[in-house]
C-alpha cells in the first residue's frame, strides 16, 4: 500500500516565525524546520522550505509572484505560513491564480510567547491538508475559504472570517502570470476628499483603481477624478469602507454609485477594498499575458 507524499510547508515569516529582539520588538527569526519541530511534527509528515522571511506588511507583488511559483512547483498539498497582516491578499491571489489544496496559516502571538498559538495552527493546517480541495485559511480552530477571507480582529486567535462570498474558481491554468509591474491603487472616500487623490494615482501609472466608497459604493468628492479615469480606459471598482454588506449602486447624483456604474465603474460586491484590488490585479495579469502589448 503506497504512502501519501508529505505535505509541503512553505514558510514566509510573519508572527508565527517571530521572536522578541533585544529592544522588545518582534522580528521573524524561526525557520521552516523550526516551525515544524515547534509543532511536534516530523519530517515524514511535513517537508519544510523557507520561501521568504519577512513581515507580511512588507510583502511586494514580486515577493508574491515568487511564492506563487513555489506553491505551483510543490508536490501534493501545500501549507503556507504567513503573516496575518496581508494574508487575505495572498489568499485571494492563491485562490484566483492557482486553486487546489493550499492551506494558509499563521499566528497572533510570537513563537517565544508563553502560550504561542502558531504550533496549534500549524497542526490544524496539516489536518486540513488531508481533505482540502480548494485554498483555505486555518487559524484559531477554524478553516475559512480563501476567496473572500478577511482579517476581522487584530489580536484574537480567530482572526479571520468570510461573509460567504461564492467562489468563482481560478482565472487560469498552469504557471500563474506575474503580478509585478502592475499597479492598482485603493482610494478611500471621506468628507472633504477631492479628485486630486484619484488624479495622482492615475499620474503615478495606475492600471486600475479601487474606490473604498461611502455606504453602498458612493464616491463623493472623488467623482470628477473617477470620471477622468474611466474616460482614460482604466478599470474602476466600487467597494465600500463599511465592514459589512455589499455594494449596491442605487444612488444618483454626481457621486452616486448608480451614476458611476452607468459610466462603466464595476461593483466590488462583497469584496473588501484589498480583496477587490487583488482580484483586479489577477484579472489584469491574466489579460496582460494574453495580450502583452495592451498594458492597460
Strand content: 15-25%
The CATH superfamily of the largest domain turns out to be L-asparaginase, N-terminal domain
Number of domains: 2
- Catalogue the unreliable spans: none
Order of helices and strands: EEEHEHEHEHEEEEEHEHEHEH
Assembly type: single chain
User: What gap, in angstroms, lies between the N and C termini?
Assistant: 53 Å
Radius of gyration: 20 Å
Strand order of the largest sheet: 4-1-5-6-7-8
Comma- or semicolon-separated keywords:
six-stranded mixed β-sheet; alpha/beta; 8 helices; globular; four-stranded parallel β-sheet; 2 domains; 296 residues
Describe this structure in words.
This is asparaginase. It comes from Corynebacterium terpenotabidum Y-11. Belongs to the asparaginase 1 family. It is a single chain. The chain folds into two domains: 155 residues, Rossmann fold (3-Layer(aba) Sandwich); 107 residues, Rossmann fold, CATH 3.40.50. Strand 2 and strand 3 form a beta hairpin. It is globular, with a radius of gyration of 20 Å. The mean pLDDT is 94. With 296 residues, the protein is an alpha/beta fold.
Please describe the topology of this protein.
Elements: E1 7-13, E2 18-20, E3 26-28, H1 32-38, E4 46-54, H2 61-73, E5 78-81, H3 87-97, E6 102-105, H4 118-129, E7 136-139, E8 142-145, E9 150-151, E10 160-161, E11 184-188, H5 196-203, E12 208-213, H6 223-231, E13 236-240, H7 257-262, E14 266-267, H8 273-290
Helix pairs in contact: 3-8, 5-6
Amino acid at each position: 500500500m503506497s504512502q501519501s507524499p508529505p505535505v509541503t510547508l512553505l514558510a514566509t515569516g510573519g508572527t508565527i516565525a517571530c521572536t522578541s529582539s533585544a529592544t522588545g520588538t518582534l522580528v521573524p527569526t524561526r525557520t521552516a524546520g523550526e516551525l515544524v519541530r515547534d509543532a511536534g511534527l516530523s519530517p515524514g509528515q511535513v517537508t519544510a522550505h523557507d520561501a521568504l522571511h519577512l513581515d507580511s506588511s512588507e510583502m511586494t507583488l514580486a515577493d508574491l509572484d515568487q511564492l506563487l511559483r513555489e506553491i505551483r512547483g510543490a508536490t501534493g498539498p501545500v501549507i503556507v505560513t504567513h503573516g496575518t497582516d496581508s494574508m487575505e491578499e495572498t489568499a485571494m491571489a492563491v485562490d484566483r491564480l492557482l486553486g487546489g489544496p493550499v492551506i494558509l496559516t499563521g499566528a497572533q502571538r510570537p513563537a517565544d510567547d508563553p502560550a504561542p498559538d502558531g504550533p496549534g495552527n500549524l497542526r490544524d493546517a496539516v489536518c486540513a491538508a488531508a481533505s482540502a480541495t480548494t485554498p483555505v485559511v486555518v487559524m484559531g480552530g477554524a478553516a475559512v475559504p480563501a476567496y473572500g477571507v478577511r482579517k476581522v480582529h487584530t489580536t484574537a486567535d480567530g482572526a479571520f472570517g468570510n461573509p460567504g462570498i461564492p467562489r468563482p474558481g481560478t482565472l487560469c491554468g498552469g504557471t500563474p502570470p506575474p503580478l509585478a509591474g502592475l499597479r492598482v491603487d485603493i482610494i478611500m472616500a471621506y468628507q472633504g476628499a477631492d479628485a486630486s487623490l484619484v488624479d495622482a494615482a492615475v499620474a503615478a501609472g495606475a492600471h486600475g483603481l479601487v474606490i473604498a466608497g461611502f455606504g453602498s459604493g458612493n464616491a463623493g468628492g472623488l467623482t470628477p477624478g473617477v470620471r477622468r479615469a474611466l474616460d482614460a480606459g482604466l478599470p474602476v471598482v466600487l467597494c465600500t469602507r463599511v465592514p459589512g454588506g455589499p455594494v449596491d449602486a442605487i444612488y444618483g447624483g454626481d457621486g452616486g454609485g448608480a451614476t458611476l456604474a452607468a459610466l462603466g465603474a464595476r461593483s466590488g460586491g462583497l469584496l473588501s477594498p484589498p480583496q477587490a484590488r487583488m482580484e483586479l490585479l489577477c484579472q489584469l495579469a491574466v489579460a496582460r499575458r494574453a495580450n502583452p502589448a495592451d498594458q492597460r
